[in-house]
Structures
1.
Amino acid sequence: EEILKEITDLVVEGEDEEVPKVVQKALDAGIDANVILREGLVTAMDVVGPRMASGDMYVPEVLMCADAMRAGLEILNPILAEGDNASLGKIIIGSVEGDLHDIGKNLVAMMLESSGFEVIDIGINQSTPRFEMAIEEHDPDIVALSALLTTTMPALKETTKALKEKGYRSKILVGGAPVDQAYADEIGADGYAEDGAGAVVCSKQLLN
Ligand code: B1M
């Protein structure tokens, strides 16, 4: 679809005012919100990633892309979130210490919420003590940890270990691009998910 390509291009260009308008236009044209998300918005990050790695794009530009993506997501969020309201369980989610990436985490949070979980998002760059404070305040069923960098995988491991050592009842779910099932097993997490849909399936399994 032409309009999906237009959305991708606008996100890559960091057009945060245009993106929501075109996303709305795509919805009005009857395109499914999930398709707009996957083939319009998320594809932009597949373009941005390699450009960033090759030095064709710098952090300030990528931040503009992230803002444009967020602006588009805000239009889709209420539609994607039309789920049931019964709480399947309480989940605290955050990006681990040193990690400032939040687009993927936000997507995972949105999917969990729309599937009926109560989600408390504590944000990016969260240290172990911050997770502990949140756990003590909310007593969640699951703590979901996101890491997007190979350099923050050690923080993922530290936090997982520390929370396990404290003996909280919460299950620990981990994910993010560099993480896989083998690593999740190695660090003693209770679950691993590749994406938002996987996080929903895994969370349901963990609470069974
Ligand atoms: Co950064 N970055 N970044 N970045 N960035 C990556 C991750 C990178 C692969 C780009 C590249 O070089 N090709 C690379 C990592 C290399 C590596 O570690 N192997 C990288 C780097 C190097 C960096 C910096 C070091 C760059 C620098 O400063 N020189 C720096 C580090 C900052 C820090 O965190 N300390 C940095 C900064 C940034 C920005 C701030 C500019 C920006 C983030 C803005 C924001 O998030 N608000 C940014 C972005 C946008 C990216 C890319 C382009 C896109 C990430 C993204 O949002 N993807 C990324 C390259 C890429 O992924 N193509 C890149 C879309 C999103 C939907 O996917 O986040 O993977 P993702 O989430 C998925 C799954 O991973 C999974 O589900 C999500 C939905 O499908 N998932 C979970 C995520 N969390 C989960 C938790 C779960 C389960 C599943 O359970 C708990």
2.
Amino acid sequence: SEKESSGSGSGSESAAINGEIPQKRKIALITGITGQDGSYLTEFLLDKGYEVHGLIRRSSNFNTQRINHIYIDPHNAHKARMKLHYADLTDASSLRRWLDTILPDEVYNLAAQSHVAVSFEIPDYTADVVATGALRLLEAVRSHISATGRSHIKYYQAGSSEMFGSTPPPQDETTPFHPRSPYAVSKCAAHWYTVNYREAYGIFACNGILFNHESPRRGENFVTRKITRAVGRIKIGLQNKLFLGNLQASRDWGFAGDYVEAMWMMLQQEKPDDYVVATEESHTVEEFLEVAFGYVGLNWKDHVVIDKRYFRPAEVDNLKGDATKAKKVLGWKPKVGFEKLVRMMVNEDIELAKREKVLVDAGYMDAQQQP
Ligand code: NDP
Ligand code: GDR
């Protein structure tokens, strides 16, 4: 299949049109391309004219749902400029091989076991992918530069507000880290590996310290999407209860589509640096429930049941970013605010629930099941 095809090397150039001098296309390599951010970043970079290569991991189920709309449509002009390759952040040889083959200008390391609660269940694996995985990729970049002399290559590390953990808000680039989960500790390690490779080897490497960002493509076991999926299904009559944990935690929630732009902007600067990306507004899970259920005329209290299983061994209570530096230096600012984000997610999940209802009514699906 095409998904197994090799990279095209560095020779990709857009065709000369009307005698114009051909511009060399920029090439991006994205780990975690099948995730929420990977899909938005791919669309963003394709629109900017990049050739995008994504590393995907082998799975017994298809894991490309979020990028199928770019990949499959034969009329899609983007198709030929997105290529997928098998690799894994736990496999150093695969990372170095694809760097040598693809010859990217920019590398975005978005791959992670990204669920905080799950990281308490699989801490060893989480550290292997999130912390050591970032180190493997940085080391692959370093040795690739040393072998090829391609020192212009730029690296983006997907850092997280979870690194601040229990340090009180507002949090900015100078705020001390106090991580509260194996995931967050691993992200701190990845952050410092990135700083170290920048200082030790002069690699253009940036840490984006991104606060929570959501979208209709958010994984269904993160709290925002879990809520909006439930709102859609309750509204359409497919379920009645929603089981949740701590409703008092506060998060600075933005829109993923806005945040991938900040990633790219960091790599377009003269010098590599680290940036906080946030909306600078924080809301509790309970407030999210109020807006999401209220938007479709429901009362969340009639549906939400607290289940201890969703409480974490250590919680992060309050995150609220100070994105002054990103605004000033990058010229970045978020376009989608809290209420608009919630409404966008609810609208999409109502449409999804309607499609599920058709399958349920036709006997193709049990209402308890989700496809
Ligand atoms: P997702 O969980 O949606 O996506 C994670 C991606 O990593 C998926 O493509 C997944 O593949 C891939 N992946 C997981 N393990 C491996 C592995 N061993 N080797 C290769 N690929 C792997 O995360 P998001 O898109 O939400 O987040 C992107 C990055 O940003 C992550 O690093 C996350 O920790 C970080 N982050 C996210 C924030 C957010 O609010 N969304 C905030 C701050 C940081 P598959 O599809 O096969 O599972
Ligand atoms: P978070 O996101 O841990 O901030 O990490 P998540 O949506 O999982 O949790 C946010 C808050 O909601 C509380 N909560 C629940 N969470 C989940 N998942 N399920 C529930 O049922 C539930 N009930 C209450 C949590 O306790 C927490 O306080 C996300 C991930 O994307 C990370 O990869 C990223 O680094 C950070 O955001 C920034």
